[in-house]
Amino acid sequence: MRDVFAKACAAFADRVALVAGAERITYAQVAERAEQLALHLVRLGVKPLDRVVVQLPNVPEFVYLHLALQKVGALPIMALPPHRYLEISHFVRLSNAMGYVVPARGKDFDYAALAARISSEQSGLRLVLIQGEGAPSEMISLDELLETDSGLPRATLDQITINPLDPALFLLSGGTTGVPKLIPRTHNDYIYNTRRAAKITDIEPDDAMLAVLPFGHNFPLACPGLQGFLLNGARVVLAANNQNEYLFELIERERITHLELVPAMLIRMLNDPRLRDFDLSSVRIVNTGGQRLQPEAKIKTEQLIPSCKVQEVFGMAEGMLFYVRLDDSDAARIETVGSPISAGDEVRLVDDWGNEVAEGEVGELLCRGPYTLRGYFCAEEHNARAFTDDGFYRTGDLMRRHASGNYVVEGRKKDLINRGGEKISAEEVENLILAHPAVQNVACVPMPDPILGERMCACVVLKPNAELDLETLCAHLDARGLAKFKLPERLEIFHELPLSPFGKISKQILTKQIAALLDYKSSSTRG
Predict the structure, then answer these.
(1) Angle between helices 60-72 and 2-11 (to 10 degrees)
(2) At what angle do helices 470-479 and 426-433 cross, to 10 degrees?
(3) d(CA 181, CA 90)
C-alpha cells in the first residue's frame, strides 16, 4: 500500500486531494506531511508490524497518519470515535498495541483523559499522540509533529522493507460475542479491495466524494472510500458534521459526485424538505451500505435527485463485497444488492446442515476470495466455528439468488442489532447488564425503527423486590465505559423470558413481542 499511494500522490501532485473547511490540500502536500510524520514515527520508535490504535475523526490528520503508518509498516487498529474505555482497552490489550492516537477532546468527551487512564494501566502502550488543541504537556502533539522537522533523512523510509502479504491494518468486526474482534487486512488484499470497488463505482479524476461516515469503517475508508478516490486523483471532502442543511450546502458548493451513506442518513436527507432548496445535480452515484436499503427508498432517491443512480453495497470488514453494477437493469438495481466484485470470489448459500440450497431459496452466505480474511487475530476458538474446513467464512447473513443472477439480503443469523449501520453485539451489552445488582436475566433484541432500521430494547427479568428504569440502566452501562451508541433505548420488564424448544431464550419470540407492543402503543396513541 505504501508504494501505491506514493505513486498516486506523485502522479496527481498539483490536484486537490482533500477539502477540509476552507483548507484545500493538494496531493503533494498530503505526501509531504505523511512522509514527515512517518519520519517522526520512526524517531519515536515505531517499527514495522507495531500496532497503533487510531481513534481520530474525519480530519486531514487521519489521512496523513494512515499513509504515514503504511510507510513505516505499522498497523493501525481502526477504532471509532464513539468507542470508550471498554473497547479501547480491549483493543490495546488484545493487540499488544504500543501506540494510541486520539483527539484531545470530542464534543462531549475527554479523549486525552481516556488515553492517560489506559496508558497508566497497560505498560506496553508507550506512545500516545494527541491531535488538536489542548494536548496535555506530558503527551505528544500530533499537530506539532506535522509542523516540525524530524531530523531524520528521507532515505530512512527507503530502508524499511514491507512484505505485501503482511497485515496493513486491523479493522473491527461487528461481532456477536463480546467486544469486536480484530480483522487483519493485508497490503495486497486491501489495495485490491479498493481498486475493484473504485472501478465499479465509476470514479473520474474530477469527481468528489463527501466523507461523512467515520473513516474507521471499511466502507468510507476503502469501498471505494478515501483510498479509492486518492488512487484516482479525485477529491475527498471532509464533512465537519452530519446535519442535513450543512451537507446540502457542501454538496452544492463542492459539486459532490459520490455520496457514501448508511440508509438511515440517506432517508433522513430525503425526508428533509430543504433538500429541494439546493442544487444537488452534481451527484452521480449514491452508494449505501451497512444495512439493507428498501426499494422504495432507492426509487425516492432517484426521483428527488434525478442526476444520480443508487448503487447499493453489501459488504463486511472481513472482506467480501457485493455491488450493484451501474449497467444492471432497473429491476436488479432496485431489488438486489448486486453480485461479488471479483471473479475470484466464491459464494455458497447453505442450510443449517451446510448443504447448498436450491436456486432462489434462502441460505446462509459462505464466502471465500482473494480479499476475504482467513482468520480473526488471536481468536483460534472462534475461527474454528467461523470458517469451514475448506476455508469458507460463515457470515451469518441470509441471502437468496435473484432471477437476475444478483443477490437479495433476507436477514441474518447473527445476534446483532443493526442501529443505522452500526452493528451492536447483543451479548456484549447483556453481559454488562447482568452485572447490575437488580438484574436476574436479560436479553437484548432489535426493535423496528423507521429511520435507523433497528434500535436496541433490553428485556429484563428483575430480582425479587428490585426496581430498574432505563436511565439507571444506561448510567450503569456508561460507567463501565460502553460506547453510547450501544446503550439500550428501551427497557421492558418481564416476569420470565420466552424459551425455545431447546430451552434457550427465544430472541425470535421476544423480537416479535416487542414489535407488536410498539405497534399496539402506536395504534393506541393514534386512536
Answers:
(1) 130
(2) 100
(3) 10
DSSP character at residue 166: S
Residues 6+ apart with CB under 8 A from 173: 180, 181, 182, 183, 317, 318, 376
CB 289, CB 260: distance < 8 Å: yes
Residue 206 has a pLDDT of 97
Q: Which of 36, 24, 88, 112 is nearest to 60 (CA)?
A: 24
Length of the chain: 527
Q: Note the pLDDT tens digit of each residue in 37-78.
A: 999 999 999 999 999 999 999 999 999 999 999 999 999 999
Q: CA-CA distance, 74 to 167, in Å (whole number)?
A: 9
Q: Are 82 and 55 in contact (CB under 8 A)?
A: no
Instruction: Give the C-alpha distances (Å, rounded to integers) separating 319 from 14, 38, 195, 368.
Output: 33, 27, 13, 9
Q: How far apart are CA 136 and CA 139, in angstroms?
A: 6
Nearest to residue 27, comparing CAs of 55, 54, 59, 67?
A: 67
Whether residue 525 is predicted with pLDDT greater than 60 in this model: the reply is no
State how far the Cα of 258 lies from the Cα of 222, in Å rounded to an integer.
Answer: 14
Q: How far apart are CA 45 and CA 261, in angstroms?
A: 38
Q: What structural domains does the chain harbor?
A: 2-184 (3.40.50.980), 416-526 (3.30.300.30)
pLDDT in tens, 186-220: 999 999 999 999 999 999 999 999 999 999 999 99
Phi-psi region of 370 (alpha: psi -120 to 50; beta: other; left: phi over 0): alpha
Per DSSP, the three-state class of 110 is coil
For strands 407-412 and 235-238, give the pairing.
unpaired
How much is the pLDDT for 138?
81
